[in-house]
Write a structure and sequence with these properties.
Keywords: Exonuclease, Hydrolase, Nuclease. One of its GO terms (molecular function) is exonuclease activity. It comes from Halomicrobium mukohataei (strain ATCC 700874 / DSM 12286 / JCM 9738 / NCIMB 13541) (Haloarcula mukohataei). There is one protein chain. By secondary structure, the chain is α/β, with parallel strands linked by helices. Helix content is about 45%, strand content about 15%. It has three domains: about 100 residues, inorganic pyrophosphatase (n-terminal core); about 140 residues, no CATH class; about 90 residues, Diaminopimelate Epimerase, Chain A, domain 1 (Roll). A six-stranded mixed β-sheet has the order 7-8-9-10-12-11, with helices on both faces. The protein has a four-stranded parallel β-sheet with strand order 2-1-3-4. Strands 5-6 form a two-stranded antiparallel ribbon. Strand 9 and strand 10 form a beta hairpin.
């Protein structure tokens, strides 16, 4: 999946970034507002803590947020755009690049955090290589952050099935499975999810491939599965960035708060998908609704519902775009947003003009 339009040549090699951090007196880390960016920032911040180097970490959802100034002598953009940065971590997945940087600093990274970030990264995350090197093992079942599948499946944003966001529907489905054996239960739940998506008349052919990312999860870290950990990181990065930073830094006492945010975020996303209006054009599927997290809805619709290669989600004055072919869709959103009076960062945007105008501008830009 191609979503970004960054110039990869602008990325600072991990060894060079490590050298820059090694000589810093005070570091500012600016994370991209997603699970991968948050995890990568947490990895770098933990390494700085181990070296007793003062730092400030934040999440930038807009270019304006990234452009804020501080007294730091080194500013690192961790996938964030619009940052006046001394160095830039931009190679994807960001978490994997951060692991290389941390090791170059002579510090051992938290591989559960790194793998969690990689599992929710776009495209080929290379998670299998990282997991094998770290010694993480898979188990049957579905990647959720909690031990109870009713809660986990109802609120997962790694998938969108007919029961997503409907706790009662998930509970009925789980009860019908039976089985007291944990391993057998995990397998039955995985089959339940796969069959539910395969049998969903609103799902696309790519949905059966997309669900593979959520099955047979790696186990480890502070949550039930690594994929569930990544799902929580992604949600809090978008909803409560400050809490997300605390979670990525490994602070005690934030796990339950993060899970509450994850549940709320997921409910808004799945409800948004069900209640939104849609429009289909040649090459573009448009989803329009109110008060829904546009980035997460765009990702889920693109993977599980969109019949076209590009998905545009609009809610209020916010928009997000996702592509499922090889094209880079970020430039199209940027051009369209500029045309209607707004700003775009990677694949999400804020605009002041009319939503119909934005849709038309995106169609023209594609």
């Amino acid at each position: 999946m191609s979503t970004a339009g960054r110039d990869q040549a602008s990325a600072t090699p991990p060894s060079d970034l490590a050298g820059t951090l090694d000589g810093a007196d005070f570091v500012r880390l600016v994370a991209r507002a997603d699970g991968d960016g948050l995890a990568a920032t947490g990895l770098l911040a933990r390494a700085l803590t181990a070296r007793e180097t003062p730092f400030q970490a934040s999440v930038a959802r807009t270019g304006e947020a990234g452009a804020r100034t501080t007294d730091a002598d080194v500013t690192v953009s961790v996938g964030a755009e619009g940052v006046d940065a001394t160095a830039t971590l931009a190679d994807e997945p960001l978490s994997t690049a951060a692991v290389e940087t941390v090791r170059a600093l002579g510090t051992e990274p938290d591989l559960a955090l790194a793998l969690a970030g990689a599992t929710v990264a776009d495209g080929d995350s290379g998670e299998a290589t990282l997991a094998e090197a770290a010694g993480f093992e898979r188990r049957p079942g579905v990647a959720v952050p909690v031990s109870e599948y009713v809660d986990g499946l109802a609120h997962s944003t790694l998938l969108h099935a007919p029961f997503s966001g409907e706790r009662a529907a998930v509970e009925d489905a789980i009860e019908a499975l039976g089985s007291d054996d944990d391993t057998d239960r995990h397998r039955r739940v995985a089959s339940l999810v796969a069959l539910a998506i395969a049998g969903d008349e609103t799902a696309t052919d790519r949905a059966t491939e997309a669900i593979e990312r959520a099955l047979h999860p790696y186990v480890g870290g502070p949550f039930e599965t690594i994929g569930g950990y990544g799902d929580v990181l992604d949600a809090v990065a978008r909803e409560r960035p400050g809490l997300g930073v605390a979670l990525a830094l490994g602070h005690d006492g934030v796990r339950e708060q993060a899970l509450d945010v994850w549940r709320t975020h997921a409910s808004r996303a799945h409800t948004g998908i069900r209640t939104a209006s849609t429009q289909r054009y040649d090459g573009l599927f448009v989803v329009r609704g109110d008060a829904m997290p546009v980035e997460t809805v765009a990702r889920l619709v693109a993977r599980f519902r969109s019949p076209e290669p590009v998905t545009l989600v609009v809610a209020g004055n916010r928009a997000a775009v996702r592509g499922t072919d090889d094209r880079s869709v970020a430039p199209a959103l940027d051009a369209a947003t500029t045309a209607v009076g707004g700003t775009a960062t990677r694949t999400n945007a804020r605009f002041e003009g009319d939503a119909d105008d934005l849709v038309e501008q995106v169609r023209e830009a594609l």
